[in-house]
């Protein structure tokens, strides 16, 4: 199956375009203020500042929010080549507590890839301390079809 004719020839530009598409359509990412920092073939970096609404009963960031941040980075990384891919299985280890106002950075990178399956690791780091607060591993599965033709808005 061939990709649509309007695909960027530059893999980095194509990855950025799919990253923009994935993040702009992700409602939880919008609700928590996820920001696209970087994207490339098989890789993605997102950031967020933890809002008070993300805190659990102990006053620390809810694990589901950390998982959602890492999962969003996975979705961008595994769709970076323009083929539709979905998470097949994911796991996360929570290592340190996170407070409201903390700046988090999630860096997802491809570890292995076959024709239809890939493995990604994502470290969620506290931007102020540089310490890893969570480690995420996700397996993705490529499904039928290519990503739709999209163009991110022009930036000035």
Automatic annotation (TrEMBL):
GO terms for molecular function: acyl-CoA hydrolase activity. The keyword Secreted does not apply. Residues 58-131 form the Thioesterase domain. SUPFAM superfamilies: Thioesterase/thiol ester dehydrase-isomerase (SSF54637). Keywords: Hydrolase. It comes from the Bacteria. PANTHER family: ACYL-COENZYME A THIOESTERASE PAAI. Belongs to the thioesterase PaaI family. NCBIfam families: PaaD, unchar_dom_1. This is Hydroxyphenylacetyl-CoA thioesterase PaaI. It comes from Xanthobacter dioxanivorans. The lineage of its organism: Bacteria, Pseudomonadati, Pseudomonadota, Alphaproteobacteria, Hyphomicrobiales.
